[in-house]
Structure formats: structure tokens, C-alpha cells
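The record is passed on directly below:
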Amino acid sequence: MGSDRPRWISAAQFANDVRDFAARVPSDITAIAGVARSGLSAATMLSMYLHLPLLAIRQTLNDVIEAGNGWRLGGSSHIRPQGKVLIVDDTCMTGNSFRQVLPIMKGWDAMTAAIYCNPAASLKPDMWQAELQWPHMLEWNIFNSVLSPNMALDFDGILCHDPERWQDDDGENYRQFILNAKPLYLPRKAPVPLIVTARIERYRAETMEWLRRHRIHVNQLIMHPAHSTRERERDNVAAYKARHFAAWAARHRPRPAPLMFVESDPRQADRIFQLTGHMTVCPATSGVWCK
């Protein structure tokens, strides 16, 4: 995994890497402590694989709490009240998270671990499963991360699931789909700078209502100007998305880099990259197109 190219890490890949990491956890570890929030996902899976107690480290409250357990863990003979704790985070980007956590764990016999570690991190954990250079995109937090202000998004297949064929009738079935679409990725940390969708303009009110109900704020929503979906199908949708993305990208200064377009269709993603030269990502295939 130690590639110089930007990578999209899916939730499925993450689960596999946590499972593989469980086999490497030292046998003298007697509890797993997850760094809230993302670290708790890895810690929870490790505690289940290894049948160990789970602790939660809350940086906001500067404390450590027991997460509790069900009947399977109660009374297990291998659980010791005092022992070595494995502090787990999903990633180690710079090492700052561990710097903040270690004082909270002062007095504990502990070692640190991350599933993914940036080789350029100034403070690395004691253990990690794989190296992961920056920039990288993690499926479980990319839409609410430091990269969020640099992302232009497709709509269907990104913010919500795609319609079924019978729903895509450009009539009342489609209108009901838009109003009641099942959410997929919900950006809530910051307003989405730009959404470029192939949905046609006359469904703007329904689209805005869905965004409002799911508490997603957007700075600019561009919808296709066609009068019907049949008319839109005669257009080059990838080129339409690329044109608006490029215009926005020319005005936007990413901090931190890079700019990217997140597209649900891999063929359109490839074309958008070819036309704009900017990073394009397709979560459905974990595909990343970049220079």
C-alpha cells in the first residue's frame, strides 16, 4: 500500500486491514482503547476479534471511559483489571493525535497503534498495519474532513443512492425518488462548495428540500438546463460536469491541496479528469484519477 499516488480507502478495505492487524497484536495486550471517534471503529473491531475489553479515549473531555460489554465478555478468565492497553486510531497523519492522547493515558501501561500511518508523520505509533501517504481519502470521513472545502460533488450515487430504473421516469416516480432518496454520504462539517448534477433544473425545489432535510448546506448547486431527461441524454454529461468543475477550480485555492471532483460513474470520472486535469475520485470503484 505504500504508493506515492493518492489512494481511496474504502470501508471494506479498512475492515480487512483491521482484521489482518488483529493477528499482529501482542499477546500481553489486555484491553483496547480507541481514540474517539474514528479510532473507535478500529478499536471496536479489534476488541471483538481478540475478545478484549474496550475503552474510549475522549480528547474533548480529557478522560478514558469503559465502553461496557455484553454477556460474552463478562466473567472471561483471561481479562485482567490491570494490564497493557493498546491505544488505537484509524490513521496517524502527523502524530498530533497521539501527542494529545498520551498525556490522558499517563500512568497506564500502554502502546500505540494505527491501521494506517503516514511515513512522513513526525510521531509514529509503535505499530501500524500499512503506510498511507498524503493525500489520501478515507471513505468514512472524507466528506467531513479537511479536504471537504476542496471537493466538488456529483449528486446521485454520492449524496444519495441512485434511482431504480422504474423510478427514473422523469415524472411523479422520479419526483418522489428525489424527495425520498436514501442518503449515502452526508457532508455536514462544512458547506459543499459545488454540486454539479445531471438532474434537470425543473427538479431544483425538490432537490433543495432533500438537502435541507438532511442538513447539507451547499454554496452552489448546478443542475442541467435540459427541459427533459430525454433532452439531457443527448448531451455529453461528463463534459458538462467538467466544464463547471473547471470554472470553479480556476477560482478556488485549496488549503490543503488537492482539488477534486467526486463522481459516481467511473467512465464519467475518467472523462472529467481527462478534460480538467484535476483529481477525480469514484467511490464506487475506489478509483482515483490524478496527474
